[in-house]
Inverse folding.
């Protein structure tokens, strides 16, 4: 795939980047270089290679997945203009 100056101008407009007409050929060439690099990556044989989270082998930290109330009900309700019986109190809007 090749990027022409019209496509480069359209991409610049979508990205909300003002590019002078004189700079469009260089921008189109940069896009073509990037696409060339992506094509090179597609040629790499990755058969049998496990996906990595990081370049250094490490295990992600995990926490116990448990449901709690957060233990901060009083702190949260302290910001409420009106709280009753442990809940936010709001005016009735439906009759």
């Amino acid at each position: 795939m090749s990027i022409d100056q019209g496509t480069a101008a359209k991409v610049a407009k979508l990205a909300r980047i003002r590019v002078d007409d004189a700079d469009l050929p260089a921008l189109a060439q940069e896009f073509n270089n990037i696409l060339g690099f992506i094509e090179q990556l597609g040629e790499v044989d990755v058969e049998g290679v496990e996906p990595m989270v990081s370049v250094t082998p490490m295990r992600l930290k995990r926490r116990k997945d448990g449901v709690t109330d957060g233990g901060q009900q009083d702190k949260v309700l302290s910001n409420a203009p009106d709280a009753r019986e442990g809940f936010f109190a709001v005016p009735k809007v439906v009759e």
User: Anything to note?
Assistant: The chain has three helices and two strands.
